[in-house]
Write a structure and sequence with these properties.
Length: 107
């Protein structure tokens, strides 16, 4: 598994959805749950898969009406790294918010 070159808020949102899902999640579910556009989510999912953080597979349900869905699931290492990444990012965000609030109050 390779580390990610950059961690953006959108990446953290996608990782959070995958962590919270508890099961393989299809792309549209990730889009809706993260509130991010498809043009952001699918490239993130592709980068995560290329880096070994997750795996994907095509739906194999011939009785389902509509296009096949692609399911994404964090690997064991990916889930561990995702938890650490989300926790670290949220801690930094909280610190930045406290600092910004303190500056507004003292000005």
């Amino acid at each position: 598994m390779k580390p990610l070159a950059r961690i953006t808020p959108a990446t953290v949102d996608v990782l959070s959805v995958l962590l919270d899902s508890g099961a393989p999640a299809w792309g549209l579910l990730v889009i809706k749950a993260s509130g991010r556009p498809a043009g952001s989510v699918y490239p993130i999912l592709e980068r995560l898969e290329q880096s070994g953080w997750l795996t994907s597979s095509w739906e194999d349900d011939p009785s389902r009406v509509g296009p096949r869905r692609r399911f994404y699931e964090l690997t064991a290492e990916g889930a561990t790294a995702a938890r650490a990444t989300v926790t670290s990012f949220e801690a930094k965000r909280a610190t930045s918010t406290r600092i910004a609030t303190a500056r507004v109050v003292t000005v």
